[in-house]
Structure formats: C-alpha cells, structure tokens
C-alpha cells in the first residue's frame, strides 16, 4: 500500500495557501480600502506563513497516524487493504479540507483585526 497521498496533499495545501493569500490581497484592493504598508504586508505574510507551518505540522502528524493505523490493521488482516485504502484517502482529504478551512479562517480573522487598527 502506497501513501503517495501525503506528498500530493502537501503540495496542494501550499498552493491553496498561496492562492488564498493572493486573492485576499486582490479583494482588499477592489473594496477600496487603504492599501497595506510594506511593513503591514510583511507582518501579515509572516503571520500567515507561521500559521501555515503550524497547520502543516498538525496535518502531517494526523496523516502519519492514520497511515500507521491502516498499516497495522492491514498487517493483521491483508484482506482489509482495499476497503481501508479508499476510506483512508477520503479521511486524508477531509483532514486536508479542515486544514485549508482553518487557514482561511485565520487569514479572515487576521485581516479583520488589522482593519480595526
């Protein structure tokens, strides 16, 4: 059983984070708000990257745990490999979606806090 899902999800996670950051910057400009200063933009980028690292770490730990449990179950009963594989992939996708949602919420919260200052 191969767990190539981890690397694919990792790359997709980074692409989504980068895309979300760009789209938020475009929205800010379209809404007619004052543009961010260079230092505000740099601070925002640092905060987003730090949060991404934290979320990535949790994501990979959960993926590893799920993968390990699946391997252990399959080691005990090899007939479980096919049914477990599709369930495992679905669960890993769900975990990835939750991580993306957490990142989006963080960015929204960060941006709304910055508007108040």
TrEMBL record:
Residues 31-112 form the Periphilin-1 C-terminal domain. Residues 11-33 have a biased composition (Basic and acidic residues). It comes from the Eukaryota. InterPro entries: Periphilin-1_C, Pphln1. Transmembrane segments: none annotated. CDD domains: periphilin-like (cd22896). Pfam families: Periphilin_C (PF25234). Residues 1-47 are annotated as: Disordered. Residues 1-10 have a biased composition (Polar residues). PANTHER family: PERIPHILIN 1, PERIPHILIN-1. This is Periphilin-1 C-terminal domain-containing protein. It comes from Ilyodon furcidens.
């Amino acid at each position: 059983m191969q767990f190539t899902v981890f690397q694919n999800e990792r790359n997709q996670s980074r692409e989504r984070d980068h895309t979300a950051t760009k789209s938020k910057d475009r929205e800010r400009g379209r809404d007619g708000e004052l543009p961010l200063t260079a230092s505000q933009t740099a601070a925002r980028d640092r905060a987003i990257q730090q949060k991404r690292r934290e979320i990535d770490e949790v994501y990979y730990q959960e993926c590893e745990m799920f993968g390990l449990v699946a391997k252990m179950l399959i080691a005990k009963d090899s007939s479980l490999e096919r049914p477990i594989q599709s369930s495992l992939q679905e669960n890993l996708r769900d975990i990835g979606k939750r991580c993306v949602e957490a990142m989006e919420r963080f960015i929204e919260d960060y941006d709304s806090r910055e508007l108040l200052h």
